[in-house]
Amino acid sequence: MLLQRAVIDAVGAMRALAASGQSAAELAQTLARLDAQHAQHAQSPERASLPKHLETDFTQAREQAQSVLQALQQHQAVFDARQAALAEWQAQDAATLDADTLKRAWQGLPRLPESPLSDSLQQQFAALLASAPAPVQAATAEVTPPHAEPVPRKPRQEHAPVLKEATEQFFKTLDAMEAALQEGLLHVASEHDKTLRDTKHGRLTPAQSDRLAHVRAQFKQLADWARWGGNVSREELVKAGEELPAQELPMAELAKKVGSLRERWKSLDTLSGPAPKSLWERFDAACSVAYAPAAQHFKQLAEERHGNAAKAQELITETAALAAEESTDWKHVASASQRLRQAWTRLGTIDRKEKKRLDTEFGAALDALSKPLETQRQIETARREQLIVEVGLLKPSERNTVDMLKALQDKWQELAKALPLERRAEQALWQRFRAACDDIFAKRKETAHAADHERREHLHAREALCASLETAVIPEGEDKSRTAFINHLLRDTRAAWNATGPVPRASEAQIEQRYQAAVAGVQAQADAIAERAGAAQANALRDKLRLVQSLEASLADGAATDAQAWSERWSALPPLDVQYERSLQQRFAGAQAALGEGSAAYVQQLQANQARLLDEVLRLEIVAGVDSGAEFARDRLKMQVEVLQSSLKSGQKPLTQVSQLMQLCAIPAATDARTASRIETLLRRIGGQAK
Predict the structure, then answer these.
(1) Dist. CA 540–CA 568, nearest whole Å
(2) Helix, strand or coil, per DSSP, at residue 288
(3) Do residues 686 and 627 touch, judged by C-beta distance below 8 A?
(4) Euclidean distance between CA atoms 16 and 22, whole angstroms
(5) Cys staple from 78: which of 110, 177, 647, 673, with CB 3.0 to 4.6 Å?
(6) Distances 472 to 290, 464, 488, 522, 527 between C-alpha atoms, Å
(7) N- to C-terminal Cα distance for the chain?
(8) Distance CA 636, CA 89 (A)
């Protein structure tokens, strides 16, 4: 409020400068002081709260004061001469003054243009003449400026009643007119003067008449000055209008400038009265020329708005046509909906009335197109929600989880391609789906860490098993017990090996190789023991077979035999495996039983079985891959064919070499040296093996 009051006072002071009667230097100093105050007001934080018209009022008042200053500076010498003459006459005794002499001297001075300055000096001169002796009064009336109005006199109305209230109102209006003149408010003072002329009042006293005359003279002086200053300001407005085209301002600023010039012209009409017609026509032409580019620009904008409205109508028609198709190609519908919505937002400016109607029509058409799409999108949203649920149900530890998760991701991509949801909804669902997938991978990673730790533990366990095999010590003792120990060790180690579970893939081959090497080392010891036992068994089998063959040969030769001696010799030999022992024991017992009277029949049996024995020997040589000799080459070839055909026809699993050897050893038959040698070769090859 303080700032507003200060600005109002500054405007009043600026308006009062026009009639202040100051010299050019004083007026310039006062104008500079008011400009400095206004600059301070413009920098105040409260400036934004000021009424907008105050800035315009100050600018107009300053232009008038500047015009007065320019006029005063141009005619300062004339003004000083007249002012000096007045000062000299005013210093003399009024009784010595001669009106005619003063009048001639005043008229002989250089003349000032009609302005508030000349009016002020003329009023002082009139006052000087009024103070001269009585004969001078007529002269005073003659030199009164023609533009000074006489004090109006009301016709005497003796019979008309004068209201006291009207008289009081008359003087209130006169007071208001004086105050307006003091503030420099010419248009307000003009309204009050008009009211005074229309007001009926009683007879005025000489003092009241002089006051009214003085106020009206002051009003006329201010009006004349305002008219003169207004013409100067109008010249400036015309010049400003003529200079506008060269400034190449933006269209909006240009239109604002032209409008501002016209508003200031109107305000001058209010303050200074109407302008000369020629000056007005010049101003109007300048404004019209300056505004022409803006008018063309605004016309173009109007055409663009009309074109934009036509484009909007086309979009509405296209949207309505798509909605009427009721297409189920949802991806196409979604794409078209988005395209139309974006095209609508890219439309240029449209007239406000048309814009409201077009927005309503487009919204209705777009709703008709988008409603089925929104329904389908709800279905697609539910499908995506289901995929998220399915991801959450996956077990991270299962082997096929990654494949199932990839299948769900592929399904998501298919749904997204078939019908994209709204960007925000699609992004939110995708974030949830990806978070669920990331959770599965994170849990699998945790499981993998645990599995890696477990595999390392398994590796340590297997390394310990390998070390136990590598450092195993086989206790001394019989071969059978040592072999049993080795077999038990290998069996337990294998069971522990299988129970440990998988090891790290990088160490799997290495630890497996180490384990196989350790097993091979222990197995080599078992094989060595078995080889020694097999050799011993083959030798024992050979010795007992030789004993049986010797007994059968003695029976064939008819030599006297002692059964007891043969039994002792049998008992002296080491026992064989159960199978070999049983087979040879039966053959030996049969030969031993024939030592008596049945020797001839037994010998015949031995001779009869000789051919069978040779066939079995040849058959076993073929199976064992033992050379039969050149003399048996033909028979061997024939036997190979029989063996092959027999194996194909029977379809049964063939007997092992050990079983065939046992059957061979159990046949009681006469054996010559060559056959015995061939049998012993088979014994060395097969006899040491287990059944």
Answers:
(1) 16
(2) helix
(3) no
(4) 11
(5) 110
(6) 116, 12, 12, 8, 15
(7) 128
(8) 180
